[in-house]
Amino acid sequence: MPTKTKKRGNNEGSIYKRKDGLWCGQITIGRDENGRQKRQYFYGKTRQEVADKIAKALNDLANGIYVDPARMLVKDWLNTWLWEYKKQTLRPSTFQDYESLINNHIVPSIGHYKLKDLRPEHLQALYNSKHESGLSLSTIKHIHVILHSALDQALKNGLVVRNVSEATTLPKAKTKKEIRVLTLEEQKRFVAALEGERLKPAFLLALASGVRLGELLVLKWDCVNLKEGTITIKRSLRRIKTYDKSLPTKTMLAFQEPKTAAGIRTIPVPPGDLSRILCFHINSVYCRAVIYCNYIF
């Protein structure tokens, strides 16, 4: 028999430990159309975890912001999770990527389900269909990361009884895509075609170093070691949505640091015209970037 604690006061239900070791609690959240009491159950590994969930739900009820989990749709929870739980912790570019994946891939497929009714097969069908349509395995993995994190938070909030994303299997790549690189002859033709091009130094530097466009556009002198013949990648540039209606534009260019320490790297550049290339590129391209961007680090 489960061991119950002392009954709580008005509307506060009880907390008890089940036979399987999981703690369970419940509160009354109102009455249905027939006048019967509606109860919300909360689960956790410890009594305190359940007590915290109940306290939050009671506070939300008192402030009129409580949402009945029985009615919450997947799309509504994803929106709440993204803006209330992730907005302050994600880099602007990552937040934009999350929003795009949610709106373009997740919500159209499973957004209409009630959160409490979401099952592993719903997510599995989503992953499989995206794989069959040609979406990259990397993007499907990002979709899974979003769903796993959002459902994990829903579990903590007592909105679901388990994280159904843990019972799914990600598709495997059928064949490894071969990277296409320019041959020596193609490189010569490319360099020859740059004659008279204002941004020739930038193209030459990209060809010699292999850096990404966003990294190339924000090179500064503190990234350059002419003596050693190297450049160090410390930051990148990307266009992101502003989400601020008071601003004159819907997007802005933002400077940001690499996500991980591995993103900060030093790359050797062939000597020869290194000094001339860097002088021209950094003094022209970077200055223009600073002038036209909102500088945020």
UniProtKB/TrEMBL annotation:
Keyword tRNA processing: no
Gene Ontology MF terms: DNA binding
Pfam family, one: Phage_int_SAM_3
An annotated GO BP: DNA recombination
Residue ranges the record marks as coiled coil: none
SUPFAM superfamilies hit by this protein: DNA breaking-rejoining enzymes (SSF56349)
Domain Tyr recombinase: 177-297
Similarity comment: family membership: Belongs to the 'phage' integrase family.
Name of the molecule in the record: Phage integrase family protein
